[in-house]
Protein 1
Amino acid sequence: MGTGGGRAGRRGGRVVRRLSLILVALAVALIVAGCADEHPLDTLTPAGPDAEEINDLFFPVLGVAIIVFFLVQGAIIYLAVRYRARRRAAAAAAGTDGDESDDLYGDEEYPEQVHGNLRLELAWTIVPTILLTVISVFTLISLVELNKVSAAEDDLRVTVVGQQWWWEFQYHLDGDTETPPDIVTANEMVIPVGQQVPLEITSRDVIHSFWVPRLNGKKDAVPGRTHPWVIEADEPGRYMGVCQEYCGLSHAYMRNYTVVLTQAEWNEWVEGQLVDAVPLEPGDPGYEGQEVFLANCANCHVVNGVTDVNLDGVPDGMDDYDGDNGDDDITSALVAGAAPNLTHLASRTTFAGSIFDLYEDRAKRIPYLEVAERGYLNRGDLEAWIRNAPERKANDADGARGMTAFPGLSDGEIDALVEYLTTLR
Amino acid sequence: MSDVASPETTVSAPAATGHTAAAHPPTTTGLTHNKLAMWLFLGSECLLFGALIATYMFAKSRLPAGELGPNDVFDIPFTSVSSFVLLMSSLTMVLALSALNRGEERNFRVWIVATALLGGTFIAGQVYEFTVFYNLGLGYTTNIFGSAFYTLTGFHGAHVTIGIVMLMSTLVSSVRGRLSPRNAETVELIGLYWHFVDIVWILIFTIIYLFPQ
Amino acid sequence: MTTTSEPPLQLTAGEQLVRPSTSLGVLSRPKGEVGWKSWLFTVDHKRIGIMYGAAALLFLVVGGIEALLIRLQLAVPGGNVLSEDAYNQVFTMHGVTMVFLVIMPMAAAFANYLLPLQIGARDVAFPRLNAFSLWAFLAGGIFLNTSWFLGGAPDGGWFGYAPNSGLVFSPSHGMDFYALGLQITGIASLVSAINLITTVLNMRAPGMTLFRMPVLTWMLLVVQFLLLFAIPVITVALFLLSFDRLFGANFFNVAAGADPLLWQHLFWIFGHPEVYILILPAFGIMSEVIPVFSRKPIFGYPFMVFSGIAIGFMGWGVWAHHMFTSGIGPVSVAVFSLSTMFIAVPTGVKILNWLATMWGGRLRFTTAMLYSVGAVAMFTIGGLSGVTHAISPADTQQTDTYYIVAHFHYVIFGGSLMGMLSGLYFWWPKAFGYKLNERLGKVGFWVLLVGFNLTFGPMHILGLQGMSRRIHSYAADSGFNLWNAVATAGSFVIAVGVLLFFWNIGLSRRRARGAPPLGPDPWDARALEWMTASPVPTHNFDREITVTRQDEFWHRKWGYDENGKVVRIAPTAEVAHDGSAKGVHLPSPSYWPVVVALGLPFVAYGLIYNLWITGVGALLILGGLYAWVFEPPDDPEDQAHDDHHESDPSGDTGNGADGGGSQDHNGGSADGDGARPLAAAGAPAGPAAESSGNQP
Amino acid sequence: MTQTPSVPTEAAEDVQPADAETEDVAAEHDAEHEHPSDRQYVKVALILGALTALEVATYFESVHHLGDAALYALLVVLMVLKFIYVVAWFMHLKFDSVILRRIFVAGIVLALGVYLVMLTAFRIWGA
């Protein structure tokens, strides 16, 4: 950095200037290129009132921060240039290199020794205090705003349950979370547009965090606790969410989607979801698959109406959905009835913690409710998943969590199973 | 050293005269390092026992209904007696120190032995109490109350035990003739530790045992 | 200034520096000035400081390799450099290593080396405890890292959130190593904190009042108080975790009614003061370096001190801002959001005071100065992004994303580590007698600065675009590809910068061989440590220094002429000590700190594998402690010493050793063994003091 | 070393005000010598015993009509009294250096502060 003599310094300066120009150009190019990508988790493009509320607070503060940033960095650069001690020309002429550079500074020159200035100190104590007070007032206002629940008591309420490594959504259409849920689905939460949906977030094992960045901030799913939260979207669409609290091996593979439908579509969806599956009879297409399913999968997975039904009419495993698993034995909850409910698997678009598409790519252009009819099954991923899930997504080493491998299943059995699963619409 | 240091004695004499001669070690604060360090350590211990007590209170509040709880196991009259024993050991401790300060070596030993014995009685009481609780069905892993209770009182008991070991060490030193009023500070510091353990029990006794469950 | 004003301190005529002596009548005391034993058994605060620093640099390499592995894994979507399991271990150990085994011991290195020097003391208050701290820290660090070879490193994150860190969800021994290893380093930190606080409060040179202490001393003092009160909290948390894992306790067993948030509270009650434990030493270093190379005194000294104290206090009231999304309830969120916001005020005061110090100065951009100014600039960025998540609603979008990763790397790498690198360049000549190469140092700085910003700058964007922390992989369609690639490239630039630093050490060392000795004061500096020879002789100062004002040393070199202009009033060589004092009585080396520290990992291994090993460890500790306590703190043959250390006053389960400690240096011993009575505590303005400082 | 000529320093600018805290210490130090007598110690122990007896008495039915809040308050007051007596007399803090008092009080205040806030955040009171 221009440590040499006059001419060398000037030449060095030119090089530096040209270099920094190139760097700036490169940075701009990168930023443009970076922004061109699609960002399904972008926090800066809110699509719901809560996320908007947050950004309305964040951007002004960020603006202030950026101003302070430029002021401070500017001051540093200014001070560095303005008050930089000049080496003595003699030393430069002597041709000594910069190694002992301190010896090359004028030893005798000391500037005025200023020890402080009370008024300045008070100023830069008080000004930031005022600034932060203003910010904190706005923070409190939006905190209150964000904690408002406008939904009525008997409106739709969803219990969100995190589990290693997928999400379960239990629908309480009457808003009563004490009773067993009406609908249990996994990985994809379907909500009506423009309606605030109160959530109750909990977990069955470790701490997870439910986050759909474009709709709202995150809330931790803590076992033994139920945390209220809300979600609402302005426009129909498909909003990605991820688990945001480190939760073990496949933390990266714990996504979810919030699918927002128009009110009419949503009603239709609910209607479909409320229907139980019908046990297939010999001769029905998919019957062999159902046999394979009952023999291998039904230990963990529930298909309402097919896997055993209790006397109380609550499907097996649904007993557990009391929204409070304080009394349940954690380890047993991990195995029994705590795998995704597959009653309407084919109506979803993703599986395995939303990391695989259930249908091929073009299905993304098909309306959500029609995917099961018109989409082309993503057979490759689905079969691979059934055959050896741990290979596709890390599970706990001892197999206590996540889906296990089924090395015993023949190709034919897997084909049959897949065929059966497509009947679960 | 005296000859080397003599020039400076004159220089610093004015400052030194206000100071009661060599009675106090020449540290900046006038306190010995050991004493300052001991109090710092005790200050730190406040946070340690605070965390344990807070953990206990929290755990108790989270104990599911129907589980074996404090009401099922605590024997207040018994614990009151052992609390009193520990409290009185603090008295014998100060009396020991006071005896040592006066150079009454024999009395010092008597009081130290008494302190250690009272401490030992307390520990014996704790062991007995643990046994009773265990027989009532409250093991360390039984429930959250059991874990928190045994951890808190266990930590305290460990502190008392270490205190007893230190008391016995001073006794040995005294018997071997290595203790005198001049180094009474060592005993004073052990006393500080001992009293601290006592005040922790004052808290535990009230908060854990006497608060309405 | 006169000779008489600086009387020889504790000179005992005709004595050897270190004399062999016996302990327990069996073993002779370790002796000798050279060789590995002289380092292993040393109680010299300078050697201990150097070893702390060396260990921290070693662990910096380890943690750096872990960081590079993380970056390699994330360079492209779906990376497969590491398995999920290995990745989790690597990021956990990266955090643990950098926080507990790099930044903290590096701060301890500066504290050990510089605190006694800056207050004009002979050594720390308890030299043997000091040695114990070092070895316990090292034992803990090595213990933690042996987990790699014993079935897997910790995989629950450095924050170890329950119940993910419990036995059910983390069945390998990794988290046991985490809990027990941190327990051991915690003991080291606690003992060291007690020791250093006692040193600063009790062993200041005559006239060195609290408000004449250098800012670094102040910041280190605040840090030691933070450690003193914060370590017990993590100690309890780690005990609870260990008891859950090892003995089946129910503290974090949700099925038994436990609440996992208990861990979070305890961890962050420790964890937030810990953040200031990491940053304040660097603040102190910057407050030493910037004035020297600006040729001005620190601007607003009292404000610098009080803001440091304020940060220390406020650091206790903000812990739950790590838990805004944990479900602690809106009232708690609001309260902690506010308290967090205002901690920015004292921090801002510091930044502005550094700038004001540079204002109107004559800035010499040595490597040390570059690093300090760089640290101010980078820390500012970290501080500002910190304000953006003090506003809790925004934090719900940011926490656990790369935005936070960017934030705290700007604080801890950009602030702490750069500040400490500045300190290394600054005090290197003091410790080793030669300077690090300036040209290479400057190149290294710019490489590091560019690499740092290249790595962590883009993480702001990644975080706002929604990239989670602690994910071992991301999908190609998440939009994270570009900036991750840039960050990975940047991390290798950082690696080059760090390598340049190590190369610089080697190069400068080689070049320094045979070079003429460096004077005591190569930078024209201000504080007392520059007043003695470089490298600092074992006895620190030849004579006791009487302090009459801040920056005492500088004022002895420079004065003002009638116009108020600064003029030299004495050549440095005349003011500074040359380290030639002979026969200074010093505390003797000891075996026992090493023995006791060695017992700790045995206890820990035993708890994991077999209680018999614990027994061996306990025997080592107990035996070591007893030998320690009954070992005269130093030369027993010196009749001038009346040792009353027969019985050790303290000691405690968790905190292992607290030996009687040696008292015999700069005014410790009860009967003043040769220590001349100090001018009464903190009463510097005695006639003697006045004559030394102000009088021609 | 010879005397070096030096220009008078601008004292007002350079010499910081002496630190009050350290200054006090020496003066205050004399207080340390007032060791309480054994008789006083016994008296304190008797008070402690009495307070403990009071505490234990609350356990028995007779006082329960006070209601929980009053009972808690009474117990806390008794506990704090006992605590202070031991610390002040047996631990000698009443007579010792102010520095020691500050260190200990800092520990207690911090512990009380953080743990009470933590328990409040958990809403365990009144549970």
Note: Chain C touches chain B through 86 residues (CB under 8 Å).
Protein 2
Amino acid sequence: MIEFSMKEAEGGTIIVRLNGDLDIDSTEIVEETLLPALENYKAATLNFEEVPFVDSSGMGLLLNVVQSLKEKGVHVMISNVKEEVQFVFELLQIPEILGKDTFI
Amino acid sequence: MLLTVEKEVQNVTTILKVKGLIDITTTNIIEPYLEEMDGMETVILDFSGLEFIDSTGIGSIMNAIYLSREKNFTLKLQGIDEMTNDVFETVGLYEILEAFHGEVI
Amino acid sequence: MQSIISKGKNIKEAIDVGLLLLEAKKSEVNIEILQQETKSFFKLKSKEAIVKITKLEQNPNQEQPYKEEKDPIKLMDEFLHHIPDPGSESLVDLKPKPRPAPKSNELAGKVWVKNGELFCQSSPTHYPLVTIPDGVKVYRNEQLITEKSFVMTDIDFYEVQLETEEKETVWKVVMDPHKLRVELHIEPGYKITRSLLDTEPAQHIELMIDEKKETYNTLSYQEVMDKLEELRVKHGFHQNEIVKAMDAAEPGVFTIASGIEPIPGTDGWIEFQINTETQIGPRETENGRVDYREMKTIPNVESGTVIAIVHPPIPGQPGRTVTNEPLPAPQTIPISVQSGRGIAIIDNKIIAIESGRPHVEKRRSIAKVSIMQKLTHPGNVDLSSGNIHFAGDVEVLGEVSERMVIDAEGNIIVHQSVNMATLTASGAVLTHGSIIGSDVSAGKNNMIVTELGHLLGPINQDLAKIIQLIKQLMLSPGFKASDFSRGGLQPLMNILLEKRFKPFPALVKEYVETVKRNENYLSDKVWAETAKSLSQLFLSLSSEAISIGWMTELSEKLKELHELSQMPVEPNSYITVPNVLSSRLYCSGNVTILGQGSVNTKIYAGGKLTINGALRGGEVFGRFGAEINEAGAESRTPTIIAVPGDQKIYINKAMDGTSIKIGNVQYKFSETRSRVIAYLNKHGRISFE
Amino acid sequence: MYKDGMTYVHQKNSDGLTIMDKTLKREINLARNIQSQLLNGKTPVFDGGEVSGSSVPARLIGGDYYDFYPLVNGKIRIVIGDVMGKGIPAAMLMILTRGAFRSAAETTKSPADTLTSMNQALYADLRTLKSFVTLLCADWDPETSTLTYANAGHNLPLYIKGKEQVVQELPKIKGIMVGGLPNQVYNNHSIQLHDKDTVFFYTDGIIEAQNHNKEQYKLERLVQTLMENKQKCVGDIEKCVMESIEKFTEGAPQRDDITMVLLKISDQKAEITSLNSPLMK
């Protein structure tokens, strides 16, 4: 289960702090609440500092979010990924898929 | 006596003439002779009077061979009859003699 | 005359001790060196220096005829002065031999070597000359003489330094990885001692060296046994070799222990009770013509005949390592027999339950036995007879005409020509007449298996990577594996396939389609089963739960199939025809054109390609080489002969314009060439023998 | 008087024997039992032939030695030996020899290697004790019917050819007795045996057995006895040889131990596999 908090920053950027596991139970919140909330910003930064685990559905979800936001012209960045989660991302080559510059 | 030993000294050569049989009961007779060979260059064991030799006797001859190195003399064996020769050959006594620079004459 | 014998660590010490005892000065005595001190290889063997010192009479001149020339005592002093330190390696022979007493006029102006020492006698008119060979150092008054030759005087002191060489015994014990053999490598130590050779007095001499090599093999029995103990060698010692190694004077290798090698067993096999020889095709007569009547008839069996007996494998005998561990014999593989049509297997007997031609197909340890039925078509195959599809052998006594199709699970034999038709056989194709404008394939199933094998290689590689990745993921701390129990691996698989293994689904699709297309030729159900599994896993988007265990199992099966596809088939199919024109021949085995040859035809031979006549135009390929009598066309129609990189092309006469291709390298003959044997050399270029 | 188990007390009893004599006699008897148990141990049973051995000491206790050792490769290693001297000293050395054989047999590849190993192991001790041992070691391979043997100063075994009906010595092979010289290399020699062939290993105590007239039993009598009984099984041949010697010597005291080992090849060739390596009876 995941929770998130949002904070607006300069230049039409929204910073999203995610808190909890990004997994199959997060699907509804992410797709129905988070995604629509970000559509109107120029840029969004997803802070993964408080995300200890991801699973395969979570990763599918993440790919989906980034891609649909990109289609709508929102520039997405992912920040503060924990080492363990980063390892999983790298196994699946998520940085290659999303572009290495997505991760900060 | 089952075994008699005649000792003949010529300069630096000693000849020991063995007569009778060398076995467990008589080896103690021959051994003292071999012990007193200091300063000798050649010691000849003459077996022409030998009637019988058993393994203990062969042991005595081996001791003589080993002594020859210790006391620095050349050991020579002579007067070996055919039967004794067979026994010596079987146990490999001649090879040991050769290794210690002794000889059969 | 009072004399004593004195011992010391070195000569100097021995003399000093002696003089002290005699209460004499060096000038009052005559010193004779009885034994030089030696520093031996072994400390045990080192010897002390021994000298004999004799107190001289009042007038020593009488005994010393050389007194006037050179006082020996003084000479001795000089020698002693130059005695090397005990630590130095050089050896100087210090024995002062009584000097030879030659007549002085004879020796004047001459130099000589006696007892390893250099002597000379000067003369007012002539100075003696000494030449120094390589490896020898001569010192004059402790100064090294650098010239090749020097003039020797008797007022100077000369010292000849000769090197000794010492090497210690080096040995090691090596055990092979199978623990079946222990070798002792030994290089016995040695010491090379050099000394000066005596030389007759002459006005000019060259120093000559004598070299003595003594071997010191210090290897001890106990050292070897300790080493063997350390290696845990317990069994199969060759004691004699150890003793021989201890005695060795030359470097050598001794096998000091050896284990017992396991005796391999025999794999399971099929022992045929009948003749299944079907390989013999038409024979060529002495005058070069082909006599098709000589063709061997294919054996037939009645139902109930025992075709073969299946033998179980005979296990091998285990061996034993030198460390006394059992060494198992290689695993023996039983032969697995699949009963095809018309075959029953009872106990270990293969029995025909139908009459017909027994057919055996063997790939490594799998044999498939079936009874081929035979359809004999008495006339021509044409529109009136219709196409022939038969699960067995087909023999056509007439010809096969336009657009007709023959499809056989066994062999196809056509007694006359084949014209614009399609012949497909799982077995062999034999025609007695020419093939014109037709498609002929033989060993179709084998070719499909080979094709599928090519696909399976990369598929299985990728699949193995996917499995490994998933396993890695599940172990990584940042990954939440709980959803696998609910959603299965599907979501993960989607990510992987979409992003990381993009070409993979296409490969799987090709495999699945190839299997589907050739279902008729793939009698083994395993192909269809794997195709179905692969399709479910990677092609459908079903949310059916898939487990890692299932994938691993599939991977194992694919690996097995891939290996199977690489194995040669026995017996392979073949195509043997007299002539072929504007056709396409595909065969998993050998293709043989016995008659005038092949014109404008594409030939693929999975075995060897042989054309007894001419090859005019077309593209031909022989997996195991090509042998062609005459290649090329006057009309310059492109003629290409291809083989893989490891094969050779033989052409008796290659006309200009003919191309050959070996591996990926192509060559075109610019002029007609005879007796061509072409191959790829180690630089990857085409060479001719 | 201070008494403990280590001190023999000189005290005549009624029979005129000292107590020490009695104690000594008892201990020698114990030693003899140990030796005889070691000698008459297990005899291996295998297909394609049979072996048997026996030893009669000249005194209470002897210096002759024989042994069988089944190898992992299915062969049987046979050894026969004669320790210099007699009585207790020889018996002690015999036990030493047995230990050296057992450990060498376990580790070495061939009879020659066994002898080399035994010489390496025993040389120093035997030199110190001024003694030696003659040994003959042989490997019988039931699978190939070959006998491979090596000799360290022992007399050659007799070979009774079942088919040709002749008795001869095994082909000569030389080697110095164990304890003679260090670092000895021994050589192997092999012969092919056939059905009904017998190999008779022995110590010279047999042919030197004497009767009251100081006549020796001699090789001729031994050969004669073997010829007469060659068709019998090993146990019976052994018994007949022993009886023949007893009859000849008429109970005269013997100077040397009498020891023999027999190996007889029988035609019932069972299939040899790794499973039927010799079993112990």
Note: Chain A has four helices and four strands.
